[in-house]
Design a protein that fits this description.
Blueprint lengths: L1 H10 L8 E5 L4 H12 L1 H4 L2 E8 L5 H16 L3 E6 L2 H8 L3 H19 L4 E3 L4 H14 L3 H4 L5 E4 L2 E4 L7 H10 L16 H16 L3 H30 E4 L3 E5 H6 L2 H16 L8 H12 L4 E5 L5 E5 L2 E5 L9 E3 L4 E4 L5 E7 L10 E5 L8 E3 L6 E2 L8 E2 H7 L4 H4 L4 E3 L5 E4 L3 E2 L11 E6 L1
Helix pairs in contact: 2-9, 5-6, 7-10, 7-11, 11-13, 13-14
Length: about 450
């Protein structure tokens, strides 16, 4: 087993001399064997080993005993041990998560803390070849992304370093033999035998069948995983190139893409393009996000309907408006507003624009929808700028009768995400005078007088 793991670590460049390694340890066979294995390399590779243990407090006294066991074992080997009890059940209820997701979040937050405290560049986890088979099969059954289907990577970026999984090259049976050979007496979590957990059902019923067909099936799955990750990396490189032409705006919390450009690229790159966007915005993909979301989004872009919205996990909203498709966490951050317009003066609008009001006494040839002229004799005591309201109508300049503001937005193809925040200028009687940058009303001054008010939208 030692030879297999060493060859695997060399192949994937998992462990360099002088590394500081945090080892996630539960006290079970896999993590205990990993800690012992890396400890055995300590002198040879000049490693600094830190054990990190989380008591999730699911099993009361029993799980506390697991923690004490890990602490005592580390003391015997003179390994620094960081251990913490976390009330995962309270965390789970507060955030409305499943117990497994809550435990994972708490555990990895603690691992991150330990890595920073000890300036560690590696987090070593005890996942093995059988775990890889179970993970890949579970994701195929429930649906996932292409990276998800490829399973766990031997090495991937995490925090300020990397997560490494040296035992992906070996099976549970080999780990158990290693524990017996070295006199290790791991703790056994009884929940691993319960068929109420999906992973356990795969472990108890599917895995034995596969091993009966081929005892080295873990090697086949690992090779398949590595091939998929390599293919995915190449396709993502191609995708990055084409998506740079598709994206029209890229901010920290939102991305705007051109729908027509997106639909012109090949389907495999479309799916990966969406995945790149989600990776960028989420930073860490929520466990509830699956391939179904990707397929739904592709269909959303293909739809003949000119507008619509999709709500994704953790508050991400996708807004489709004509040829614009916006991915945003910012939607709804601008609340409805209403401001008095000072004459003269400046109003700073929440959408980043300004409404500037000046008094002029000279004739100027001013055109365009970004300016609006108003007779000084008009009642200007309560000139306001506000967001739209239901039923808003205005007498559009050059037209007979009134037109709904909603219809103006539709005619002008204003994206959905901008409509609720678009400024509306009205007088003290509630008459809409101007939609800055868009449409003027019939109340604009027709002829220049000696003094008049001019509004600028910048």
């Amino acid at each position: 087993m030692e030879k297999q793991v060493n060859n695997f670590m060399t192949k994937h460049q998992l462990l360099s001399a002088g590394s500081t390694v945090v080892v996630g340890i539960s006290g079970g066979p896999d993590s205990l064997a990993l800690l012992h294995f890396l400890w055995s390399l300590k002198e040879q590779k000049s490693l600094t080993i830190i054990a990190a243990h989380v008591d999730h407090m699911f099993r009361g006294k029993e799980s506390k005993q697991d923690m004490e066991y890990v602490q005592n074992y580390c003391k015997q080997l003179n390994i620094k041990c960081e251990a913490k009890q976390i009330d995962v059940t309270a965390y789970q209820k507060e955030r409305k998560l499943s117990s497994q997701v809550a435990a994972r979040e708490c555990r990895y937050t603690f691992f991150n803390h330990v890595m920073k405290k000890h300036k560690a560049n590696l987090l070593a986890l005890g996942h093995h070849g059988d775990d890889q088979i179970e993970t890949m099969l579970m994701r195929m059954v429930r649906g996932s992304t292409m990276n998800g289907y490829a399973g766990m990577q031997p090495k991937r970026p995490y925090a300020d370093g990397f997560i490494i999984r040296p035992f992906l090259a070996v099976t549970k049976e080999e780990i158990n033999r290693y524990c017996k050979l070295h006199g290790l007496t791991p703790r056994i979590d009884p929940s691993n035998e319960k068929d109420s957990y999906t992973r356990n059902r795969f472990r108890h019923y599917v895995l034995p069948f596969l091993k009966q067909e081929n005892a080295a099936v873990h090697e086949k799955f690992q090779q398949f995983s590595e091939n998929l990750h390599e293919d995915q990396a190449y396709l993502e490189e191609l995708t990055t190139g084409v998506m740079n032409k598709v994206m029209r705006k890229k901010l920290q919390n939102e991305i705007l893409i051109d729908r027509d450009c997106f639909l012109r690229i090949r389907k495999p790159l479309q799916r990966r393009g969406i995945q790149l966007i989600l990776n960028y915005l989420y930073k860490e993909i929520p466990p509830t996000l699956s391939s179904a979301h990707i397929d739904m989004l592709v269909g959303f872009c293909e739809s003949e309907k000119p507008s619509g919205t999709l709500d994704f996990p953790n508050g991400l909203r996708i807004i489709r408006s004509y040829n614009d498709c916006l991915f945003t966490f910012n939607e709804g951050n601008i609340e409805p507003y209403e401001f008095i317009v000072p004459i003269p003066g400046v109003v700073e609008l929440p959408n980043g624009h300004q409404l500037i009001c000046e008094i002029h006494n000279k004739v100027e040839d001013i055109k365009g929808n970004d300016v609006f002229l108003l007779d000084e004799a008009h009642d200007l005591q309560s000139l306001k700028v506000r967001t739209r309201k239901n039923g808003d109508k205005m007498r559009v300049k050059g037209m007979k009768g009134h037109k709904k503001v909603k219809d103006i937005f539709i005619d002008e193809k204003i994206p959905l995400q901008f409509r609720d925040h678009w400024p509306v200028v009205e007088d003290s009687q509630g008459t809409i005078l101007w939609l800055p940058g868009l449409k003027k009303s019939a109340y604009e001054l027709h002829t220049h007088k000696s003094r008049y008010v001019i509004l600028y939208y910048k």
